[in-house]
Amino acid sequence: MGEIASGALLPMQVTLAADPSQPVRYALPFANAPGTMNELLGEQLEIRFLDRITCRACARTSRKSYGGGYCYDCFKTLARCDLCIVSPDRCHFAAGTCREPAWGESFCMRPHIVYLANSAGLKVGVTRATNVPGRWLDQGATQAVAILETQTREQAGWAERVLARYVGDRTDWRALVSRAPQIMDLTVEADRLKRQAADPIQDVFDRFPGGLEWISNLQVVQFCYPVERWASPTRLTLSAGSSIGGTLQGIRGQYLLFDTGVFNVARHCSYHAWLGYGAPAPRDTPGRDQLSLFD
Ligand SMILES: [Zn+2]
Q1: How far does residue 4's CA lie from ligand 1's centre (Å)?
Q2: Which residues contact 251 (CB under 8 A, 6 or more apart)?
Q3: Ligand 1: centre distance to CA 71 (Å)
Q4: With left for phi above 0 and alpha for psi between -120 and 50, is residue 271 left, alpha or beta?
Q5: Model confidence pLDDT, tens digit, residues 42-97
Q6: Is the pTM of the predicted complex or chain greater than 0.70?
Q7: Distance, CA 51 to ligand 1 centroid (Å)?
């Protein structure tokens, strides 16, 4: 009754509206589900956990979700789940120990960018050159600008590590979901950072001759999210026998903003869930959380 879609949760796909002053569009977080999350703004919704997790790589049932939707075996063997993906300066491809060298070739040994984003304040990040603006939209950034081009992920990682000493590399999720963004002049910030970090970044340039290059013609982009009301920064999570929801007031990054708190869809990737109209009802007495990795 009242079902909108159900199945294994996926990160929400985000696309730009034709008119950039209009909010970005969010697909429903299920495979082949028609419609958008945007249409559900203002509705009373329930997301009910169906007490099943299947690995996003091998599709086997898993008791827990590891690394954002994988079973333990995949988490320990896939290159995309290795520590060097989140800390690219720790790339060990050159040492011959990449978990999947062919995957590393196609993912990490490709042009990357180092960017500045204003998500809930200024931060530095890295992504594949082909992954913008998708990466910025996933993070709920209001503004972003690519500042450096590199030939590999590792090079971008070393630059990020240096630049993060001056601007940080984390997003404050509480600020992201609970207040309107403050617009910044990212061109000014980029110039300032370039001056501040001049010496240590030169060391990175010297370490990888010809690998990195500053982008001279900075193109700042700006995004608008479908938010009617900001949320209180209370994290809603799915665990055995649980159900979350409330009135959907907004969407930013991978967060659904309810009047009851916020739900990070990407963090629940591979959880089987039912999305429908209605208030979340307590079902079983929630026991100790056996299924959520993310508390
Ligand atoms: Zn698996």
Answers
A1: 27
A2: 12, 26, 37, 38, 41, 225, 226, 227, 257
A3: 4
A4: beta
A5: 999 999 999 999 999 999 999 999 999 999 999 999 999 999 999 999 999 999 99
A6: yes
A7: 17
